[in-house]
Amino acid sequence: MLSGFNLFDSHNKITKVVCLTHGVGTRTQPVLYKKEEKFVAEKTLVCKDCGAEFVFTEGEQEFYSQKGFSDPMRCPECRKARKQQRYESN
């Protein structure tokens, strides 16, 4: 038996959850869940430091998801500047 449903997280990313069970009507068999993620082609986000809009591409979304990261809060320029500040302070 195969059933599935879609969930939307706080970032409007679609997550399809598929339940795979072995043997219809039996509760003694293990239930396996497989998570399939679909990403929006491009998302426009606003940087929390400078307020500029920046594009979060589908490839970036997939990379961030695979690493377990949340969506970026800063634009690439502010992320680079912040890394540079941390590097210089060490």
Strand content: 35-45%
State the strand order across the main sheet: 1-2-3
Structural class: alpha+beta
- DSSP summary: helix tally: 2
Secondary structure tally: strands: 5
Quick rundown:
This protein has 90 residues and is α+β, with helices and mostly antiparallel strands. It is built from 2 helices and 5 strands.
Characterization of this structure:
The protein is α+β, with helices and mostly antiparallel strands and 90 residues long. It folds into two domains: 1-38, no CATH class; 40-90, no CATH class. It is built from two helices and five strands.
Overview features:
90 residues; alpha+beta; 3-stranded antiparallel sheet; two-stranded antiparallel ribbon; 2 helices; 27% helix; flat
